[in-house]
């Protein structure tokens, strides 16, 4: 009698930035969590409040509040190695880049049998099925793919902040660049190779 490995439930929160650069720089940030997300949600909400960032998008927050928020969030043990990003240069196929980043993040996060729920900021309903099909072609086991509004979910707001943080670092903001380098060395954030 063979025993089956339990299916690990993962949740993937995704945001992207850079379409305004016409492909010069496109960043996809992915946060992968386990099925038990309530503690992480509570911690992130507390940090939003303590830092003064609140529920605002990254770009609508003041610089000092952004920095306070991202430093506190990156110190959470539950996020170590669970925040990934891919940076694409001179790349215009945004949907494909997003799919590749999601697949790469899930490969890093889980080596066993898993099923992922993928939540993407601003993804139109008309593209949900297409993204799901692309992911399955890449061998990603998905339960569902959904577009969500970043103001309604604290973990999507986290992915939005990760995206803004990484973009600011890659565009040369010294405090953000230094923090990103530090977090990459510590293994808190992982950089995916852009394909």
Q: How would you characterize the overall build of this protein?
A:
With 195 residues, this protein is an alpha/beta fold. Helix content is 44%, strand content 24%. It has a six-stranded mixed beta sheet, sandwiched between helices. Helix 4 (125-137) links the parallel strand 4 and strand 5.
List keywords for this structure.
Nucleotidyltransferase, domain 5; alpha/beta; 6 helices; 195 residues; six-stranded mixed β-sheet; globular
Q: How many separate domains make up the residues?
A: 1
Radius of gyration: 16 Å
At CATH level 3, the topology is Nucleotidyltransferase, domain 5
Beta-strand residue percentage: 15-25%
- For the residues shown, what is the average pLDDT? 91
CATH-defined architecture: 2-Layer Sandwich
* CATH-level-4 superfamily name: Ribonuclease H-like superfamily/Ribonuclease H
Tally the helices: 6
Quick summary:
With about 200 residues, this protein is α/β, with parallel strands linked by helices.
Helix and strand topology:
Blueprint: E1 8-17, E2 25-34, H1 38-51, H2 63-74, E3 83-89, H3 94-109, E4 114-121, H4 125-137, E5 142-148, H5 154-170, H6 174-186, E6 189-192
């Amino acid at each position: 009698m063979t025993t089956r490995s339990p299916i690990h439930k993962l949740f993937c929160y995704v945001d992207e930035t850079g379409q305004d650069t016409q492909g010069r720089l496109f960043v996809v940030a992915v946060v992968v969590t386990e099925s038990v997300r309530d503690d992480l949600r509570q911690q992130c909400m507390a940090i939003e409040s303590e830092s003064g960032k609140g529920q605002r998008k990254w770009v609508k927050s003041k610089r000092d509040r952004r920095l306070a928020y991202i430093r506190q969030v990156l110190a959470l043990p539950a996020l170590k190695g669970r925040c990934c990003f891919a940076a694409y240069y001179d790349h215009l196929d945004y949907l494909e880049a997003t799919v590749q980043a999601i697949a790469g993040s899930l490969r890093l996060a889980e080596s066993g049998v898993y099923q992922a729920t993928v939540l993407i900021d601003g993804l139109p309903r008309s593209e949900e099925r297409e993204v799901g099909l692309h992911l399955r072609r890449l061998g990603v086991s998905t339960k569902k793919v959904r577009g969500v509004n970043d103001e309604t979910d604290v973990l999507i707001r986290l992915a939005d902040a990760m995206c803004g943080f990484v973009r600011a670092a890659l565009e040369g903001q010294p405090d953000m660049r230094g923090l990103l380098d530090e977090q990459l060395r510590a293994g808190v954030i992982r950089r995916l190779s852009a394909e």
